[in-house]
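Worked example 3 (structure in, sequence out).
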């Protein structure tokens, strides 16, 4: 019998709608009451105050309270060019770990594609960080054809493979953009068939 979906709390509101240590702790307490133990944040969150979401999760010691925290490599408001070279990945992730006050995260995501840095360079940098720094590698906002190319590079070079895909799924973005397009490379790839898809939504369905 397939496992039931798990709810993951999105941390983009931390540092914006919940700007203080006290307000974030109230959120964490409510999440624990609801048995929600996974938090998804990013170096970019909140968009108006980059890094504050991670910082507040660190200040409140969310990981020590039993939350599994995932984060994403920093991205600007541009097209992502140059954001996934080795130096940028290392700087972003080391800063995230420092803010969060942890040595390891659950899932480390590529927040969005980098169209100029070669995929092999990107994949090699994540492979270098894999040992002890994150449990799983995830991709977010990748179109199916680019997702397949990334998987192929990992297979060809024996790099750590992404085993989690995060994409939009809500009342508006449903069949056309999620079920019919994105999952196809996941279903075809053995590693993804055994792993996870994270559906990101701002709406309660």
């Amino acid at each position: 019998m397939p496992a039931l979906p798990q709810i993951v709390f999105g941390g983009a509101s931390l540092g914006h709608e919940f700007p203080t240590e006290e307000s974030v702790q109230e959120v964490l307490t409510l999440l624990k009451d609801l048995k929600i133990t996974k938090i998804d944040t990013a170096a970019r969150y909140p968009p108006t105050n980059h890094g504050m979401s991670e910082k507040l999760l660190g200040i409140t010691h969310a990981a020590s309270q039993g939350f599994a925290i995932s984060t994403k490599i920093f991205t600007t408001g541009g097209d992502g060019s140059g954001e996934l070279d080795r130096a940028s990945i290392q700087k972003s992730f080391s800063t995230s770990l420092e803010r969060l006050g942890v040595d390891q995260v659950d899932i480390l995501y590529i927040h969005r594609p980098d169209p100029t840095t070669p995929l092999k360079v990107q994949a090699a940098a994540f492979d270098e960080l894999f040992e002890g720094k994150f449990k799983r590698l995830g991709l977010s906002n990748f179109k199916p054809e680019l997702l397949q190319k990334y998987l192929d590079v990992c297979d060809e070079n024996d790099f750590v493979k992404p085993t989690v895909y995060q994409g939009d799924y809500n009342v508006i973005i449903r069949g056309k953009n999620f079920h019919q397009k994105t999952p196809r490379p996941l279903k075809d790839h053995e590693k993804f068939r055994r792993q996870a898809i994270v559906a990101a939504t701002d709406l309660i369905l």
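Notes: The beta strands are 9-10, 38-40, 68-72, 105-110, 134-140, 162-168, 196-200. Residues 9-200 form a domain with the TIM Barrel fold (CATH 3.20.20.100).
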